[in-house]
Amino acid sequence: MYNRVRLTDISVSAFTPAAGQKTYWDETLPAFGVRVGRKSKTFIVARDHGRRVTIGRYPDVSLREARKEAKRLLSLSSLPQAKTASPSMRDAVSLFLETRAQRNRAISKKEAERILHKHFLPELGDLPVAEVTTDQLNRIVDRLMKTPTMANCVFTAARTFFNWCVARRYLTQSPLAGLPLPNKPRTRDRVLTDDELVTIYRAASEMGYPFGTMIQLCIHTGMRRGELGALKWSYITPEYLTLPGNMTKNGQQHILPNLVGGILETIPKTSVYLFPSDADTPYSAWSKNKIKLDRLCGRSDWVIHDLRRTLSTKMAEWRIAPPHVIERILNHITGSMTPLA
Fold it and tell me: Does the predicted model carry a pTM greater than 0.70?
């Protein structure tokens, strides 16, 4: 939502926070405006066929400084732009994973690599990045709409990649620019009942290694599925399970007591990973095996992360541990508690 007004120090200061984003465009410099959100006001300029460039936040950047920078950027828009040769999707993805994705945790980089290689390169790998269309990307995401969370993950990975391509000047605008997530993210609060938990656990035991065993370990430890799928034998001793910081969500090393030795003894040692893929990489066949387990237990109205929430809830309900201990078991850092504490 936007309006056209005369931007002055008084008007910018008077703009009130908005529940959604609201943009006010300047009457005297039409491509210059201020975007007002729930928590901040940000100066922006529209250039290069409508592409919006952020100048800075108010009041860290004054209106006078922002207007001066907007004029400079708009003057550059009228100049011939040097073009960077558009590489193939395959080459661009390879460079993206070597550079931009290096900033992520190892497990996040691995997931980005899996998504881009599985969902985009088979169909688009030989195309120049600049020739990939919105329709082509939409078709790929639309095929995943039966699994809304996966569709969102694939869309997000593609959006991040194409934004990187814009920054590298392979594109002037991302083919996904302005498109919302295919599905509205849901905040889940599902906690399994005791009977549901027993049913799923028994079905997982019947299913066995690898997927059934992983579900049993999820139930016992509350580990995230990505952590469990990347678990290595070197992280395990008879006393502890130690997750290094590069594979946890908060980047902190996480140590759990090894109370699942009986289950671990049933796992064959054929790789450095407890649950290797066919390519000897972290486990990734979650979706298809979740469907098999659902059929076996007769329930499909749950997701794997519900097991983690159920563990937390049941420990509190059964008074196994006080809240701050439960938080540490889940590797949540809250309040002023330090990792050492």
Answer: no
